[in-house]
Amino acid sequence: MHDFLYKNDTLYCENVAVPTVAEAVGTPFYLYSGATLTRHFAAFDRAFADIPHITCFAAKSCANIAILRLFASLGGGADIVSGGELFRARTAGVDPQKIVYSGVGKTADEIRAALESGILMLNVESEQELAQIQEVAAGLGLKAPVSFRVNPDVDPKTHAYISTGLAKNKFGIPIGDALRVYLAASKLPNITIKGVSCHIGSQLTLVSPFVESLAKVKRFIAQLAEEGIVISHLDLGGGLGIRYNAEEPPDPAEYARAIKQELGGLACTLILEPGRVLVGNAGALITKVLYTKEGLKKFIIVDAGMNDLARPSLYDAFHLIQAVERPDREQTVADVVGPICETGDFLARERMMPNVTANDLLAVMSAGAYGFSMSSNYNSRPRVAEVLVHQNDFHIIRARETNESLIQGESIPDFLKKQSV
Ligand code: LLP
Question: Domains of the chain (ranges plus CATH)?
Answer without folding.
Answer: 4-31+281-406 (2.40.37.10), 95-274 (3.20.20.10)
